[in-house]
């Protein structure tokens, strides 16, 4: 199976960086490209807006979160595109993945912190269950 169009669901965490490394490995096999999707749910965007004065600041913060992943893609010279999407991470990513023309989805098994492990563990589970293409969950 050829994995040329890879969707990487990322939140900038250490786990999602490991997922990025795996996605890059897959992309290199078939000279593929990676779409990075970062989901912003309602509560995140509300607190972002409250704690940061401008939309520009909010964008900047989100870009900083993804910077390690983007740096890795740049360093490995992989063709990529970043998509910021709104909605609850599980369903939003599933929706994006199923509407796109992807060969597989790569996602980290856990997210940003210990507290969120349960929640984000369920995000990767939701993605694996509902996406129509193969899903690689990276531990």
What can you see in these coordinates?
- InterPro entries: Rossmann-like_a/b/a_fold, Universal_stress_UspA, UspA.
- Belongs to the universal stress protein A family.
- With 139 residues, the chain is α/β, with parallel strands linked by helices.
- The chain has a single domain, classed as 3-Layer(aba) Sandwich (Rossmann fold), CATH 3.40.50.
- The chain is built from five helices and five strands, in the order E-H-E-H-H-E-H-E-H-E.
- Helices cover 52% and strands 22% of the residues.
- The chain has a five-stranded parallel beta sheet, sandwiched between helices.
Outline type: globular
CATH arch. level architecture: 3-Layer(aba) Sandwich
Distance between the termini: 22 Å
Instruction: Report the CATH C-level class.
Output: Alpha Beta
Number of strands: 5
User: How many distinct folded domains?
Assistant: 1
Annotated CATH topology? Rossmann fold
Quaternary class = single chain
> How many individual helices?
5
Strand content: 15-25%
Strand order of the largest sheet: 3-2-1-4-5
Structural class: alpha/beta
Helicity range of the residues? 40-55%
Arithmetic mean pLDDT: 85
Question: How would you sum up the major sheet?
Answer: 5 strands, parallel
Name given to the CATH homologous superfamily: HUPs
Question: What value does the Rg take, in angstroms?
Answer: 14 Å
Which ranges are low-confidence, i.e. pLDDT below 50, for 5 or more consecutive residues? none
In N-to-C order, the SSE pattern is EHEHHEHEHE
């Amino acid at each position: 199976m050829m994995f040329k169009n890879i969707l990487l669901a990322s939140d900038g965490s250490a786990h999602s960086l490991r997922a990025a490394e795996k996605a890059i490995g897959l992309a290199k096999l078939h000279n593929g490209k990676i779409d990075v999707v970062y989901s912003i749910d309602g509560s995140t965007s509300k607190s972002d807006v409250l704690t940061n004065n401008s939309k520009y600041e909010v964008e900047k913060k989100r870009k900083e979160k993804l910077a390690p992943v983007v740096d890795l893609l740049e360093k490995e010279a992989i063709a990529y595109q970043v998509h910021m999407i709104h909605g609850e991470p599980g369903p939003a990513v599933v929706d994006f993945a199923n509407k796109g023309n992807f060969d597989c989805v790569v996602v980290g098994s856990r997210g940003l912190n210990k507290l969120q492990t349960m929640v984000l563990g369920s995000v990767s589970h939701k993605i694996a269950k509902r996406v129509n293409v193969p899903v690689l969950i990276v531990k």
